[in-house]
Fold this protein.
Amino acid sequence: MKYCFGIDIGGTTVKIGLFSASSEMLARWEIPTRKDNSPDGLLRDVKTALEGCLTERGISRTDVLGVGITAPGPVTEDGILHGTVNIGWGDVALGKEAEKILQLGTVRIGNDARVAALGEYAYGAGKGSKSMLMITLGTGVGGGVIQDGHILTGFHGVAGEIGHMTVDPYETLPCSCGKKGCLEQYASATGMVRVAKKFLADWSGETLLRQCEITAKTLWDCAKAGDCAANEITDFVCHRLGIALANAAYLVDTELFVIGGGVSAAGDFLLEKIERVYRANVFPHSRDKKFTLAKLGNDAGIQGAAALLLKP
Ligand SMILES: [Zn+2]
């Protein structure tokens, strides 16, 4: 039997999955993310974890096909990771470094949101489709485009980075990336809370939002409960999302749009609000775009990382 590993490097933890060559997830665990100014220490931690797993299960190194790795930054086709703001590395040849340190066959790397999209395409919400765009609404806003099983990477590794599309050229506050008016500033979980607080400062009416701590979850719960202010805020956020997706559709007219990340727990109620804006902003014959919720949750990264090697 042959195996591979899928590794998802996040800001606080590194998720690791062991997969069979037929894409079955056999084990899944996490280790803390070591934050140095190079990936060397972290890759050695990963090596220890992978070797421990092989020993425990009596798997020979020669039966490991390789390792797929996701990292939180733009990755170009040459395997270079360009700047990971929340871990603190500069530009690094992560694929080559990992191959040298892990000694477990081929290493393929990709951007975390792009690879999560590949995971959903291969094993989750996009299974059976030809092409899809996934947008992840979490602490930030990530995105990825998959066409015929391939991640659209782009020349600089930023293709699919929908969270940093400018949706308000007149915004005065900066985004985490340094630009102003990025979609992420309104549609991430933190962005939604910021938008809600700003809105409530000028809202004189009654609202359930003044009786709870405002989080993306309470905001959407209040909107679902029919709260007027919460619906105005979520309509505003979804207007920006719908416009961004309509614009994206004119560049990459994928079969499917998949919405993932923690905020997607708001479910069909969220999808309907986005779709309404989307449909009003595209050609009539392309209004029937399929919108769906992601299925793999936090495992999309490791499953996508495995898919980088297994290509189902
Ligand atoms: Zn930005």
The mean pLDDT is 95. The longest strand covers residues 13-20. The chain has two domains: 3-119+299-310, 128-295. The pocket of zinc ion is lined by residues 164, 175, 177, 179, 182, 184 (CB under 6 Å).
